Amino acid sequence: MSLPVSDSPEDLQRWRLPRGRHGLPRELVERSQRERLLAAVVKVTVAKGYEATTVGDILGEAGVGRESFYELFDDKLHCMLSAHKILVDGLEERVRQTYLGDEPWAERMRRALSVTLEWFAADPDAARFTLVELSTVGPAFRPTFQAEFARAVALLEEGMGEDGPKPQLAQANSLAVGTILARIYEEVLLGRAAELRRLLPDLTYELLVPFVGEARARAAADA
Amino acid sequence: MPAPDFGATEQRRRIIDAMIDSCAEKTYAATTITDLVARARISRTTFYKEFDDKRACFDAAIGHCIEQLREVAASAHEPDDAPADAVRKGAVAVIEALAARPGLAQLLTGDAIAVDPKVIECYRKATLPALEGLWSGDDGAPRAHSDPRLAFGKAQVLILNQIAIGKAHRLPDLLPEIVYLAVSPFGGHEAALRQSQLAGECTTSNVAAGER
Predict the structure, then answer these.
(1) pLDDT band at residue A27, thresholds of 50, 70 and 90?
(2) How many domains does chain B have?
(3) Whole-number percent of chain A with pLDDT over 90
(4) pLDDT at A10
(5) A134: closest chain B residue by CA
(6) Contact between A68 and A33 (Cβ < 8 Å)
(7) Is B113 on the interface with A (CB under 8 A)?
(8) CB-CB: which of A135, A137, A174 is closest to B158?
């Protein structure tokens, strides 16, 4: 039988422990329970909204007992933020692989953007959970949002390299992250996550203009 | 800045202020009617005379803030200002008003989105016609370099981040980027950069003047 090898959302959905006596080591059982709970919190939160979601709902969806839940998580928020972090870490890893390459900067930006749109389009539930539901968790939202925003800006900066543009705007990198986030957020909110891929040319243009001006941004977007 | 009177009763205004302050301190999700009643120093009965529930009060607070900021933007420029200058002055005035009362910025960019993500549509409705009006010539509607509707979301994310890092009082640090966003849809990249630079210089000189 296949064992979980990663915390990726696909594995979270795919992997289920066999029912009944299975004789698996305790740490594997716990790992499976954790993954089922994380997959469940995404599904239930998207369906009901964070506030209306109860720990009981998550247990029901995951088929895990209350005691096991509290061995793994402090509370609903902890479970929610753990799932959120796994999803965002996965996205960052993919963008990082694409963006930190050897091609010219504008091309790397276009491809990183393409990977990002692809990620959100591939799983609309995860997209909604990551972007929209996070803002409803209360005070924990601000530090989480801030840390992730800072990570994205730092990654953009890291890949600027020798050939990267020298924009006149001091905070052009923040502006770029804001541009991507705002546009994807709105599409996800309107239930159009699955169609995100078609935004690639327009969003490439919007993203590049502050760095390279209108003519060069248009050329890169049409490439 | 004189507080415009929108016909709100004194009590109603106190409750709205309580909502803004409580959201700033602990977010909308954590705010209770008990918090609002205590902050506004009114009775529960009075609260329910003015509003059906917490959400109705929140919506009134959002409407109040949008109206106030629209007023601020509109009175920041002269009739004979060029469109790009008028937009820069409006954007600077709005950011300064938000910096003076960070709770407003928190309410409009953080909580409003969490409570009703479609609120950004309200900002557009309140602002876009005025923006288009500034740039329209005799030959009708202006040509757009980029979608002006998207500028709001981008500005919102930048302001939200500034609040999240605990620098709401230093919102003017964002002026070059916010002015760029405000001017570029109809003014284009080059004009937006020029206005952005002007806005940056004006904040630097303000800071210098404040330090003397």
Answers:
(1) confident
(2) 1
(3) 74
(4) 53
(5) B114
(6) yes
(7) yes
(8) A174
In a domain, B137, yes or no: yes
Average pLDDT over residues A109-133: 95
B2 found inside a domain = no
Phi, psi of B82 (to 5 degrees): -65, 150
Domains, chain A, ranges and CATH?
9-73 (1.10.10), 83-222 (1.10.357.10)
Which tokens hold the place of A50?
């964070």
Q: For A27-31, A53-57, A178-182, which range has the lowest pLDDT when averaged over its residues?
A: A27-31
Q: Which residues of A touch B197 (CB under 8 A)?
A: 168
**Residue B74 belongs to some domain of the structure:** yes
Dist. CA B32–CA B39, nearest whole Å: 11
A contacts of B181 (beta carbons < 8 Å):
175
Closest chain A residue to the Cα of B148, Cα to Cα = A206
Q: Distances in Å between the alpha carbon of A7 and those of A3, A145, A149, B187?
A: 12, 21, 22, 46
- Taking phi over 0 as left and psi of -120 to 50 as alpha, with beta for the rest, A209 belongs to alpha
* CATH number of residue B186's parent domain: 1.10.357.10
Phi and psi at A149, nearest 5°, equal -60, -45
pTM summary value: 0.84
* B29 vs A contacts (CB less than 8 Å): 51, 136-138
Segments forming the whole domain that contains residue B105: 10-211
3-class SS of residue B142: coil
Is 60 exceeded by the pLDDT of residue A15? Answer: no
- A214:B145 CB<8 A: yes
Phi then psi for A201, rounded to 5 degrees?
-60, -50
Check B196 against A177: CB less than 8 A apart. Answer: no
Assess whether pLDDT exceeds 60 at residue B116: yes
B118-135 pLDDT per residue, tens: 788 888 888 888 888 888
ipTM of the complex: 0.81
B64 domain-assigned: yes
Task: Kindly report the nearest CA distance between residue B161 and chain A, in angstroms.
Answer: 6
